[in-house]
Amino acid sequence: MSGPVPFPRRMQALDQMLAASPSWDDLEKAFKPAGVADHFEPDDQIKKWLAAFFQTEPGRALFEWIADLTVRAPYPHVGNSRDSAWLAAKAHEARAAVGLAILRGIADGEKLLSPPKEPTHETSA
User: Fold this and answer.
1) In a domain, 122, yes or no
2) What domain count does the chain have?
3) Quick one: which H or E segment has residue 117?
4) d(CA 106, CA 55)
5) What is the pLDDT of residues 104-115, one digit of tens each?
6) What is the pLDDT of residues 15-32, one digit of tens each?
7) How far is C-alpha 112 from the chain's CA centre?
């Protein structure tokens, strides 16, 4: 298995892709960057799902593993040139950004799931 799907070739069969014969407009759209929300922020429902899953044992294990791969990952080995150091820094920054976006989503989701309680005003008699 080479990915999250047991039979990835069935997911993108060459015959189907070739039969589609995209136009130039479709090809130009394919090379445009994907639209993403500001700061890669998920919507509130996804934040709540992240926070709820984080509270489970398998969810906690998954997010610990994601943190190990992203924000806790060691700085990559760099070669002897400045260019390789710059490329390594950008790769590390991109990897960490994914982890930080997920962790920020969990933190925001926890706030959404347990909003602050309104202060009670008790009057003394």
Assistant:
1) no
2) 1
3) none
4) 10
5) 999 999 999 997
6) 676 677 667 787 677 777
7) 19
> DSSP letters of 64-116?
HHHHHHTTTPPPPP--SSHHHHHHHHHHHHHHHHHHHHHHHHHHHHHHHHSPP
Taken in order 54, 58, 64, 68, the sign of the CA dihedral is negative
The amino acid that residue 98 corresponds to is: V
Residue 53 is assigned to a structural domain of this protein: yes
Query: Residue 93 pLDDT > 80, yes or no?
Result: yes
Q: Would residue 99 count as lying in a domain?
A: yes
How is residue 10 written in tokens?
């069935």
- pLDDT category at 122 given cuts 50, 70, 90 is low
* Entry pTM: 0.62
Computed over its alpha carbons, how large is the radius of gyration of the chain? 22
Tell me the DSSP string of 4-46.
SSS-HHHHT-HHHHHHH---HHHHHHHHSPPP--GGGPPPHHH
Domain range for residue 75?
A: 38-113
Check residues 46 and 6 and name the one with the higher pLDDT: 46
- Cβ contacts of residue 72 below 8 Å, gap of 6+? 99
Task: Take residue 81 and report the two structure tokens written for it.
Answer: 């040139």
- Report yes or no on 45 lying in a domain: yes
